[in-house]
Amino acid sequence: MNTQNLPSFSVVIRARNAAGYLGKVLDALTLQSVQPREVVVVDNESTDGSGEIAERYGARVVPIAKSDFTYGRALNMGLRECTGEVVFCISSHSLVLGREFFRTALVEFANPEVAAVRCTIVSKTRDLESWTQQKVLRWPLDLYTIVENGPIASGCAIRRSLWEEVPFDETLEAVEDKLWAREVMKRGYIVVSSEAMYLHMRRRGMVEAIQIMTRERRAILRSTGETWPIPRPTLPKLLKALLISAPQAAVRLAVREILLYGYIKSIPLQARWRPRAGSIV
Length: 281
What we know:
Layout: E1 9-15, H1 19-30, E2 39-43, H2 50-56, E3 60-63, H3 71-80, E4 86-91, E5 94-96, H4 101-106, E6 114-121, H5 125-129, E7 136-138, H6 143-149, E8 155-159, H7 160-165, H8 176-186, E9 190-200, H9 206-224, H10 235-265, H11 267-273
Parallel strand pairs: 1-2, 1-4, 2-3, 6-9
Antiparallel strand pairs: 4-8, 5-9, 6-8, 7-9
């Protein structure tokens, strides 16, 4: 598909104290083969210069106070500043990969049924392993499937005209993206996956992961009255991760770093004592 056939598009980035990542994210956007009409950064009272970094790249900075912040409200504020037919929602930690990220996701909107596109997170093994098999979500669908496979606001694209009809729920503390998808699917639209890939650069610790999990389940219960469809993770799994897997991973990392350091330090000795290699041609 050539550029003339692609819908116009914008980008919304939610950010708070993301100076260590935001420049890389915006650099990657400038290298895309097709460019957005505008990039809007919704800045949640950053104190590390994130807003100034965004402005240097020509992004429009929209401030949101911590006291007013919800994920849905931040998205709605950013989308109100957008003029594209499609809006990409990405995180200030989401590094798009390759020069065709936008184009690859945009082609899916040629189908008027498509409400949103979920991009592939390369740091999620399950997503990466299944990138060759497009997922299509269509109502009716169980909550678990929507939460596991629906659009993620750290890397997705949505049709702006549908957002105008169904804005993100600003009262939710989490899963505003998944429950938005649920509502538009009820109206007859579909959500599809795309091979457009990105890397979520920020690594979460175990405590933060548990906090996110709890917040998501709490939001789902308050909004839908439904509990998480299957009991996961279980307490034994959490204890195993904390007491067994984490220490083992730390030991493996330490051993690897020590061996790598020792090997590199030994290179001068290797060069002195090992014979020169012959030609490989």
